[in-house]
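Reopening this ticket.

The earlier resolution said the output was attached, but the attachment link was broken on my side. Pasting everything inline this time so it's all in one place.
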Amino acid sequence: MSAIKAAILADIKTCMKTGDKTRLGVLRLISAAVKQREVDERIEIDDPSMITILDKMAKQRRESIEQFTKGDRADLAAVELAELEIIQTYLPQALPQDEIESLIETAISNTGASSIRDMGKVMGILKPQLQGRADMSAVSALIKSKLGA
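Inline output:
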């Protein structure tokens, strides 16, 4: 069993004992997403798969926060932000911007990428390294700017 999954299941039990309903709700959402993937694909989730699931959930929350903020719904944005903070506790530590840029430069030079058409090669190298540790849409934008798009 994935170490992250085990930690989430243990935290669910703790939240049930302490009565932390907000955290419990988010952890149950994560657990449900994991179970769904395990059932659909008939696999046992490992840590890289857990990071992918958590990263997707975090991205959904960030997009919701942006939409709710634009729609002047601070109350709903606050709920999404609270959920995002809980999800992020199970993701690896975010990388600093300079380290992300360094990894991008290395990937571009290793692949010999020279134009926007080579972006897939660069993303293919970076995704396993950055998944869950950086906002991949921001990484994509950085790559595009470096490749002159």
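Reporter confirms the inline version is readable. The helical segments are 3-18, 21-41, 47-70, 74-88, 97-111, 119-130, 136-146. The chain has a mean pLDDT of 92.
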